[in-house]
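4.2 Preliminary Data

To establish feasibility before requesting continued support, the project team ran the inverse folding procedure on a target of 452 residues. The structure was first converted into the token representation described in Section 3, and no sequence information of any kind was made available to the design step. The complete token record follows.
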């Protein structure tokens, strides 16, 4: 089980018959169930990272279900708790809802209704634990910036942690928006220079005339407009790390001066003959093959070898699909915190559009889309794929399967047994498909077959 999956139910009731019947039903639906008849024992099972939900009767010997919920929430405040109540306990259950219960069912309850509630609660619990994991990762200099469970990102984090310990210039390769500056910051923050400046300059954002002044600084009166002396970025970064983004845009005359500065660890400001000592590591980033550029006479090969003592490659987002939803959830929670917003988890249809997006803008584009989602500017299931987004065979088959099951649920007014008979599917398979395809029985059973 991965850290994003939750499929466990802790079922607490002092009635053995209820425990056994409910356990059998849920396990037939492929939900893992642990049964206990002692609420005090249940309290010991739950911890802050429990990957599931609690289902408890209210009236039990020892302590009540509401008291159990209060004790459990002291250890796991957000844990979804579903209470089972007799008719006379409904006011107590309503009060428990006000105090943080996820939902409650009155005895005798419909096991299908309990299963629906549990599945929704498990999805919420999965998102909770993912958010907690991401928050914990924020304390790690590498994990807080380089999120992802793909093998490519695991390898990248390992490389960053290893290279951060050495005093070497590093060249980062990656497409626009892939996170090159995030990698550079991680290298700096994990290094012995973390307490010193991290100075970034985008070589492609400056005119050729300004690049030299920005890097090396100038004396007052060195050229028209130089009204006072000014430190350059190399001087400001001394003792720490200089990050040169879009290094391929640096003019050749400036490349020569930078090469000399790297070799000698000294510079002169423009218009000055005074040497200034440097102590810095240079991290560069490019989206272009610099060796091919040097073959065309547009980049100095000797500078390339000075800058690329070590090299790192950031994989584009489209090549690590397993990271897309993780990053999207992280960014929507991040945006929700910044803007103090309540958000809903993306539904299955919306997540499919995320997975089929080519993400030409990489992580930067994904962050932007997540922010728009958190602000309510993106729709859920009504979201349409853009015209330039390819729809593969797997996506078309999934849409076809979703429509078949949806239409059957509508025709049968949500009767699961009739849907199973019509589609010739066992209950477990049908449940799994409905969960994967984002289909909710309650939401469809009241829809007229004539108006789907």
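Position-by-position output of the design step:
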């Amino acid at each position: 089980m991965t850290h994003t999956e939750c499929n466990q139910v802790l079922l607490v009731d002092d009635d053995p018959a209820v425990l056994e019947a409910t356990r059998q039903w849920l396990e037939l639906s492929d939900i893992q169930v642990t049964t206990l008849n002692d609420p005090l024992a249940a309290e010991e099972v739950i911890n802050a990272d429990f990957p599931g939900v609690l289902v408890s009767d209210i009236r039990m010997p020892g302590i009540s279900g509401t008291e159990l919920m209060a004790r459990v929430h002291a250890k796991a405040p957000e844990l979804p708790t579903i209470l089972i109540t007799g008719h006379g306990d409904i006011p107590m259950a309503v009060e428990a809802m006000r105090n943080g219960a996820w939902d409650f069912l009155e005895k005798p309850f419909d096991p299908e209704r309990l299963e629906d509630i549990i599945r929704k609660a498990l999805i919420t619990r999965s998102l909770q634990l993912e958010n907690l994991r991401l928050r914990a990762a924020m304390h790690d200099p590498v994990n807080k910036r380089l999120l992802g469970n793909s093998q490519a990102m695991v390898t990248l984090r390992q490389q960053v942690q290893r290279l951060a310990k050495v005093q070497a210039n590093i060249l980062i390769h990656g497409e626009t928006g892939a996170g090159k500056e995030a990698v550079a910051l991680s290298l700096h923050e994990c290094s012995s220079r973390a307490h010193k400046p991290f100075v970034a300059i985008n070589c492609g954002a400056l005119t050729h005339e300004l690049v030299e002044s920005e890097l090396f600084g100038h004396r007052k009166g060195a050229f028209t407009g130089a009204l006072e002396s000014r430190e350059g970025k190399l001087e400001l970064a001394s003792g720490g790390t200089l990050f040169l983004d879009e290094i391929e845009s640096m003019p050749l005359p400036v490349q020569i001066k930078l090469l000399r500065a790297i070799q000698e660890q000294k510079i002169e400001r423009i218009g000055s003959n005074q040497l200034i000592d440097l102590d810095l590591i240079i991290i560069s980033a490019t989206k272009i093959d610099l060796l091919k550029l040097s073959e065309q006479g547009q980049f100095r090969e000797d500078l390339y070898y000075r800058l690329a003592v070590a090299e790192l490659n950031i994989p584009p987002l489209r090549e690590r699909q397993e990271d897309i939803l993780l990053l999207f959830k992280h960014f929507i929670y991040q945006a929700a915190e910044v803007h103090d917003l309540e958000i809903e988890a993306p539904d299955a249809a919306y997540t499919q559009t995320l997975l089929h997006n080519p993400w030409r803008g990489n992580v930067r584009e994904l962050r932007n889309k997540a922010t728009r989602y958190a602000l309510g500017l993106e729709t859920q299931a009504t979201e349409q794929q853009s015209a330039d987004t390819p729809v593969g065979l797997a996506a078309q088959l999934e849409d076809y399967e979703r429509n078949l099951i949806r239409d059957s649920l509508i025709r049968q007014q949500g009767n699961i047994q009739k849907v199973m008979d019509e589609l010739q599917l066992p209950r477990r398979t049908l449940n799994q498909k409905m969960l994967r395809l984002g289909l909710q029985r309650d939401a469809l059973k009241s829809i007229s077959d004539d108006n789907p």
